[in-house]
What does this fold into?
Amino acid sequence: MDELADFVLNFCREAGAIVEPPAYGVYEVLLPDELAARLGVPAYQRFAFDDTSLVLLPDLQSGGEVGADEVTHLSYGHPFVERLIEAARQRPACARLYVNDVRLDKRGLADLARQTLSFPNARLVEVPVPKGIERPDQTESPALGHYVRFNFKAALITDEKREQLLSVLMDAQGGYAVKELAEIERLVTLETTPGFEHLPVMPPAWLPGEEPLSRRALEGLLERAKRAALDELAEPLESLQRRAARFLELDRARLEQYYDDMERDLKRRLERAADDRRQALEDKLVAVQAERKAKLADAEAKYRLRVELELINLLVIAQPRLVLPMNIQNRTATVTRTVVWNPLLHRIEPLICDVCGRASFRLFLCTGGHLAHEECLLPRCVDCKRVYCRLCTEQMEACVVCGRPVCVRSLNRCPTCGRGTCREHVGLCHAAEGEPARLEMEAAEEPAAPPPEPRPETFDAAQDKPVEEPVLSAVEGPEPEKVEAPPKPSVEKKPEKKKPPIPPAGRRAARTKRTPPTRRATAAGQKIEVYTNAADPVVTAFVIASRGRELARRTWELVEDGIAVWCRCEKGPFCPADQTMLGPETADEIEAQLQAEIEALRREYRVPGKRVNFYYFLHDAPRPERRLLLRGLWKDDVALSRARNTFMKTYTR
It folds into this structure.
């Protein structure tokens, strides 16, 4: 009864009741009048629990004796306990705690930010201050930030139901999930009283114009926390998906065999049946066929994986930080962002991508003034080389002749027809009888893609409606850049000067088993790091030189028409491996095929065999592996066979 006694007495104390220490196993409790009226009991109570034997007890007030019937004997299921439980459920279980034991003294944040944050196409500089004007906001200053911890009850449902508790810590100012929940709780004691209430509150960078703990901000954080919770559940979901698919296949085989036997028996009886019984047997056959469809549909519904997330409560943690506004600039754009120093974790906080909202220490500055991941950028303009992100789609168009991306600033608009072309194809926009001249491309018919595989359905348990599936983060390769411009088309048809057909998407087809490139790399690498993940069929290998310098990045991605290979290295557009296609092997041989590609990359950069490290991304964190580990579509025989057939039709003659 210790848990029951703790619950009852602690609830009474928090409600403002006076609880006297026990005497002879009896607790004297004086309830507040409001609570006593709500519970329907007198304010003065005497409580005892199941493990206390009551016979005749001294009267704790008058010194006489009191019988056992004058003491409320509490146990599980007692009406008073049930009313307490209902009252406790009606009270919000949310709380706010404070981090007070931190040191707000850190100089040189600008230099530290330059070492921590990476901008490949921009630089990080201090905000200039005019002479004679003192601006205190241009130096390190303390401000109050917030974490919000969402506690969920997650239910993973197929033919069985698995429940677990899941906590997600969100940065209220950054809008991203923080993985150091256990470390924060270990490093500091959370207090109930604020120690820095005089500090200004940091505004949310992901939601301008809102308070960090406003209703709109908390609702937005809740949606992001649900996506982060699903990322945390990626591994158990994958295991359950495989198990459900295996049992569904067994049930389908059993049902198919059962109804095949029934139909075979009915058809045999129909052949020998008299005319008066034929109609009844035909009706039975139709009923059996309808029942087969219904049972198969029931089996699919039974093993369909669903995820229900129910928010239990949340915890707000206030923590002071140091902030410093700095400029991120290149030749086309300049933006101001706030660099944040976390004195508890002793680190510079990452910045957020303006496109996808994910945090990162490595971002690009687009010409439109947005910070974005490399995979969130649009293809670069072929003329001026400006880079835009997905938020600036209106700034990018395509040449009507070659189809390559051209920004609106570099687009050459024809005064006659109004069409736009790149600089190389000016004047060809209406050269073919008023229509744009077309490059001689091989029109390869691509088969229609089959319907996508069913994915787990996610439901909000509180609102009983589907939750939008998140896009799981992964280490993806960059978009292939078409460096070589296509040749100008000939307006007059001259068969003897026609160029050979170019494969679709401008890729160079490669054989299924490609030999290592004959051209040697210009530099030697010290190690190779290979990254894979469960979300996307992408393998990325980084060739690292001394001091952590990146020499080359090669990516293999399973696409509809094979395995696309992209490479960014010192050879530039002359790299023989860049923008090539491979025919995928079977699920049993795909790891050996990609291992051979990695081995070719190792020999190309003369990396020792023992310096090739493999990592598998789990919960957005790389986990070391002993070998190349492939999952997801890499092990799907149907997807591999479909890509292999499309590769054969498209690239082989």
